[in-house]
Amino acid sequence: MTDDHATSNDALTEPLLSSQQERNNNDTNEDVVVLSQLSPATTSNNNNSNNNNNNNNSDVKRDVPAASEDAENTTSSSAPESFSIQTEIVEMLHLALPLAVSFFCRMGMASTDSAFVGHIHDGQHQPETYLAAAVLSDMVLNICITPPLAFNQVLNGLVSQAMGSGNPAMAGVWLQQSIFWLTVTMLPCLVGLLHVKPILELLGFPSDIAIVAGTYAKYNMIWPIPNGIYQCLRFYFQARGLPRPAMYNNLLFLGINALLNWFFVFGGPTSWKGLGFIGAAISLSISRTMQGVCYYLYMFVYNKHHLGAWPEGGWSFRHHTKERTYEFMKQSLPNIGTLLFQAFASQATTVLVGRLGELSIAASSALSTVTIPWSGTLSATCCTVSGVRVGYHLGRGDGAAAKRASWIVMQFITVVNVIMAVVFLIPYLKDKVINIATDDEGLVALAETLVPAMLVGTYLNLLVSNGTSGVFSGQGRPLIATILSFGLELPLSIGGVAIYILVFHGDLLGVYWFNAISGAVEAAIVLYLIMSSNWTKCADEARERQEASRRSASESGENTADVEDGALSMATTDPESSSDDNEEEAPLTENVDHE
After folding, report:
1. Please, are residues 560 and 553 in contact by the beta-carbon 8 Å criterion?
2. Residue 241's pLDDT is what?
3. pLDDT (tens digit, 9 = 90+) per residue, 401-422?
4. How far, in Å, CA of 19 to CA of 112, rounded?
5. Spans of biased composition, class Low complexity (predicted)?
6. Number of C-beta neighbours around residue 248 at 10 A
């Protein structure tokens, strides 16, 4: 495979969500986000390919979204379509809604644990002690499990590239690579969770908090590997246009996790008093482990949705050739540094805030509990939508449309933040929201003073993350995000907060406002880089990478002709003939999506 192929990860994410196909097949295609972008190399001889594969690829055909004739005609033309804001918004919403629900549920699970912990009154420790211990334990856990996550973060780009290049079997190869390397590298990283207590004591935190946090971390060792594999599976199907099954799965387990917390923390409806603090960790471990198990059973065993993009031979180490592993590592390993820096940057602020005392940690944790579900959901969803839509338009060679799509997402972020500001600034609503996290009057009073600074900082940081992880990713320029992280965020955010706390002995409110100011500087730089981008050049580079991908697939020595014919047959299948198969993807009411 060529070097161009290795660098085309983000620029080749080009699913076009076909709203026309959704409208025509609404009753039979409920779970499918239709991928109407076809490889130009596979748009010829479609009748022969379709006939040949109706008999040989029936298992594959049923789980791949059908593309409309309009989509084929569009992709066979080199001239970009006219850009319609209304159509673009519809396409974004078709992708964003299931993703947003999924992200919200995933983040809501963690916030549910914090909410239960913040209401523990067992006479051993105060609620703020438990909240502080939980957030510090999560801090160490996040740093420990971050490096292996680099091996699933690349799946959106790699799987989309495989599907677009007419070699869908490679999507399954990348998934197997991702699961293998994530599992192998996660095992040694989990050892750090056995040493949370001495780590926190070394950082200067009170011993009583360190002891409680250390116990909490040990009960969280169960879920990181199953959760990481679940992420791999979700990204694999998401990139293939199947985000809804994970959405239903996540909705189901959000409720299950709340019930498990109620039972294991407080004893539920029984006379049993529950396990208290460690019950929250046990609840999360059960939820996140079973979440992945149910998703695998539904997608792989029951509906066999993987067959449309799966290598011959199934699960096998023979797919891990030297060339493939080299390409996978070239795209994955650089992410380790970026992810680690982001994790350290976030947790460094937590450590510094810890210098302000137990009350400050607990108040910050309480505010995060009611902020992260919506801000984290908005960030993750908008980054994904920006990357997909910008990459799609650039792949079509339309840099102007990609630029306009990026600004639509920025405007959407602004609107949502205005709405959330109204919710948090109305006194009655603000009290109700913060009381979700804790009922301690002292914590609530302190958290309320932080709300204005939190809102400003959250908005600016959302703009920055959407630019770096969304727009630049879609442009195929991820190096900019790394440079900004190490060259700007390190000295400004972390260094500035450290000086403010350690030298000037500032308070928690000042920390929040300092983060807002640093976010404004970063946002100004990111927006300038987006406005000054050479979108035409980005479009040319994206199309060159797409051609390089197809060449490398044909030169890899694999017999891809049958796979390409199968992919074309599936993409041109008459919607009526596939309606019965698509009905298998109806909402999962028994057990069962999504990051």
Report:
1. yes
2. 75
3. 889 999 999 999 999 999 999 9
4. 35
5. 44-58
6. 26
76: phi then psi, degrees, rounded to nearest 5: -80, -10
Tell me the residue type at 390.
Answer: V
Task: Report how far residue 585's alpha carbon sits from residue 595's, in angstroms, rounded to the nearest whole number.
Answer: 19
pLDDT at residue 326, as a whole number = 82
In terms of phi and psi (left: phi > 0; alpha: psi -120 to 50; beta: otherwise), the region of 506 is: beta
Distance CA 590, CA 260 (A): 18
Compute the half-sphere exposure of residue 18: CA atoms within 13 Å on the CB side of its CA.
28
| Cβ atoms of residues 494 and 531 within 8 Å | no
Question: Rounded to whole angstroms, how far apart are CA atoms 281 and 257?
Answer: 11
Distance CA 365, CA 387 (A): 30
Dihedral (C-alpha) 298, 301, 305, 306: value to the nearest 10 degrees?
130
Give the whole-angstrom CA distance, residue 336 versus residue 141. 16
Provide the b/e sequence for 366-396 (b: ≥16 CB within 10 Å).
bbbbbbbbbbbbbbbbbbbbbbbbbbbbbbb
What is the crossing angle of helices 127-153 and 224-239, to 10°? 50
* Residues ≥6 apart with Cβ < 8 Å to 196: 136, 137, 140, 141, 210, 213, 214, 216, 217, 218
Domain positions in the chain: 85-546
Answer whether 78's CB lies under 8 Å from 540's CB: no
* pLDDT for residue 81: 59
CB 510 within 8 A of CB 500: yes
pLDDT at residue 581 is higher than 90: no
**Helices (H) then strands (E): counts for the chain:** 26, 0
Res 161: pLDDT: 62
Please check whether residue 508 is in contact with residue 356, taking contact to mean a CB–CB distance below 8 angstroms: yes
CA distance 120 to 430: 22
567: left (phi over 0), alpha (psi -120 to 50) or beta: alpha
Say how far apart CA 367 and CA 534 lie, in whole Å: 40
Predicted pLDDT of residue 57: 41
In this structure, are residues 490 and 345 in contact, taking their beta carbons and an 8 Å threshold?
yes
Which residue is associated with the tokens 């490679």? 170
Token pair listed for 517: 């100011």
Spacing of C-alpha 197 from chain mean position: 30
**Residues 566, 570, 574, 577: is their CA dihedral positive or negative?**
positive
Cβ atoms 450, 512 nearer than 8 A: yes
Between 475 and 524, where is the model more confident? 524
